[in-house]
Design brief:
10-stranded antiparallel β-sheet, Thiol Ester Dehydrase, Chain A, alpha+beta, 2 domains
Length: 285
């Protein structure tokens, strides 16, 4: 057993990074903002010099802005080729500025023995470096195939709650580009699974797949426009499980059900009927 269950509670030292207006524009384009938009409704995310428009950052940019957050070395020596991204969550404590500097600390919050696999939960908190003001929190679970079986706690089973049995309140469909993964990878994730046909083939895929966090970003855009009237200041949090990969060029449909005051359930489907993000929960102001 290569994974180290005693790593629970280990923390990273604070790490800093800065970002610019250009980084925000690149992220927005990477998750499809501005595509086929004759009204200019997303110019605030895709331009910095349009008349009467003030540039803003998309809330889901939190997933690429955090400065580190997980010390893989503290987990022992698990086989990283068997690692899958299980779930992702973010909480926005305020709007993300279009430029700035932040500091991130990360913590491993759980390591669970699922028998044939291990699940690692982690959380990272990012603050504005100059003031210490909370900016956003990231939550992530990683699934390591073949690393379980040491007799540890199985941990929480996770909610299997499905969508409400009624028509969705909001449904938005976005078309991804055939080169969407090549564009999104410029935000920092250069995993060849998303760009190299040979590498993707060895992983069992017919061609490079879209980054899970790109699917997450497309979904976040839909939640922003469908529930928050496009206002990032109203976006509170977003959590979902990754159910299956998306191929660049597929259409993504995000369905949303308002479930309470400032709360909603959502799911995302590729090409209409293949579930790709499951068990989604979000809050908004």
């Amino acid at each position: 057993m290569a994974i180290n269950p005693d790593a629970v509670g280990s923390e990273t030292e604070a790490r800093e990074r800065s970002w610019t207006s250009t980084d925000c524009l690149l992220y927005a384009l990477g998750v499809g903002a501005g595509m086929d938009d004759p009204t200019g409704a997303e110019l605030e995310f895709t331009t910095e010099n349009s008349k009467g428009i003030t540039q803003q950052a998309l809330p889901t940019m939190a997933v690429v802005l955090q400065a580190g957050g997980l010390n893989i070395g503290s987990l022992g020596s698990p086989d990283l080729t068997k690692m899958l991204h299980g779930s992702q969550g973010i909480t926005l404590h305020r709007e993300i500025p279009v430029e700035g500097r932040l500091s991130t600390t990360g913590k491993i919050t759980g390591i669970w023995d699922k028998g044939a696999a291990a699940v690692v939960d982690m959380e990272s908190t990012s603050v504005l470096a100059d003031t210490g003001e909370p900016l956003f929190t990231n939550r992530m679970s990683l699934f390591f195939r073949g690393e379980g079986g040491w007799g540890g706690d199985r941990g929480p089973s996770g909610s299997k709650e499905g969508a409400p049995e009624r028509e969705a309140d909001v449904s938005i469909t976005y078309q991804t580009r055939t080169d969407q993964a090549l564009l999104y990878r410029l935000n920092g994730d250069r995993n060849p699974l998303h760009s190299d046909p040979d590498f993707a083939s060895r992983g069992g895929f017919p061609k490079p797949i879209l980054h899970g966090l790109c699917t997450y970003g497309f979904t976040g855009r839909a939640l922003l426009h469908g529930l928050c009237d496009g206002d990032p200041a109203r976006f509170g949090s977003m959590d979902a499980r990754f159910a299956s990969p998306v191929m660049p060029g597929e259409a993504l449909t995000v369905t949303m059900w308002r479930t309470g005051d400032g709360e909603a359930f959502f799911q995302s489907y590729a090409d209409g009927d293949r579930l790709v993000l499951d068990g989604g929960r979000c809050t908004y102001r």
